[in-house]
Design goal:
320 residues, 13 helices, seven-stranded mixed beta sheet, alpha/beta, 10 strands, three-stranded parallel beta sheet
């Protein structure tokens, strides 16, 4: 895999007269140091008159992209060694052609070194989370919430090194909000870093990969009582009571799901499609979902109008 396609998109944007280009990095399957993208941009000198912002959420150095991200993409130790050598040579190419030492730039290893390649062309690396969060007014949304739910495909140490899960957790902690994550799978080394549900453990890896949306919906709801302190009341006081949940998705607007015992709940927290299928706009009559008798030993009291922040695909969370 290479970054040629990304370079072609940037080149087309330049052809169309773009004056500001934002390239969001993450989730790539490449480790070419961005050389493919650089070579795909005709007359890269045109970028001098353009604001090129490179959004990345990691601080990995250029050459370190191979040992840090290579194994995640299936690289064996021998492959990692080869990739390190290739990145070292690519860094030398950038020094010779553009006079930029990308090996010393923090975050240049993002997306297999694509960040470094774009930096060599004059791009400015900025924290991707901050850029997107500002656009979505995420801070105010979290401040108004009772519970924050985030997520990632694979939870590991990198999740807390500037990426979405760690930054959402940090923001929630600073604002005094409980936070949890729904993830596809997790490294045992980080199980104590954030309360979370692991889809591969709950439903099996095969189903988690084949039906991630269904698994997310059925994993999140039953966990709300353990993540939301105000739900922790004696079971007998919660008989025949339901929970009203306001789900606020920054890129999809606000919706309300009501009349659903939480033990049966389907919390559409991580993707716009699930909201479309299981909830109604604020102000509309909510549907009846789940058990029809309204009873549940684990249902939350009506006093809990839980505003759940779902940072969805716009923040790169739907990669399960």
């Amino acid at each position: 895999a290479s970054t040629v396609g990304t370079g072609e998109l940037i080149d087309q944007a330049l052809d169309l007269g773009a004056k500001k280009i934002i390239v969001c990095l993450g989730g790539s399957a490449t480790t070419d140091g961005g050389l493919g993208a650089v070579r795909a941009i005709h007359a890269p000198g045109r970028l001098r008159g353009v604001q090129l912002l490179v959004a990345c959420d990691v601080t990995t150095l250029f050459v370190d992209a191979a040992p840090v991200f290579g194994p995640q993409k299936g690289a064996t130790p021998s492959m990692v060694k080869m990739l390190v050598g290739r990145l070292e040579r690519t860094a030398q190419i950038y020094r010779d052609e553009f006079g930029v030492d990308v090996s010393a730039i923090e975050g240049a290893g993002a997306a297999g070194g694509l960040a470094g390649g774009l930096a060599a062309l004059g791009g400015r690396l900025v924290p991707g989370f901050d850029l997107v969060a500002d656009e979505l007014d995420l801070h105010d949304t979290v401040a108004a919430a009772d519970l924050v739910v985030t997520g990632e495909g694979f939870l590991d140490t990198q999740s807390f090194a500037g990426k979405v899960v760690g930054r959402v957790q940090q923001m929630a902690d600073e604002l005094g909000k409980p936070v949890g994550a729904v993830v596809g799978d997790a490294d045992p080394a980080v199980v104590d870093r954030i309360p979370h549900a692991v889809l591969a453990q709950l439903f099996g890896l095969e189903r988690a990969l084949a039906e991630p949306l269904w698994c997310i919906e059925h994993a999140a709801g039953p966990l709300v009582p353990s993540w939301l302190p105000s739900c922790a009341e004696p079971a007998r006081s919660r008989r025949r009571q339901t929970m009203v949940v306001e789900v606020v998705v920054p890129d999809a607007g606000s919706t309300v799901v009501a009349g659903e015992p939480i033990s049966e709940s389907v919390l559409p927290a991580l993707s716009a499609p699930s909201i479309t299928s299981t909830s109604t706009p604020v102000g509309s009559a909510p549907p009846s979902i789940g058990a029809t008798d309204g009873t549940s030993d684990t249902a939350a009291p009506p006093s809990v109008a839980a505003s759940v922040v779902a940072t969805a695909s716009a923040l790169g969370l739907a990669g399960l």
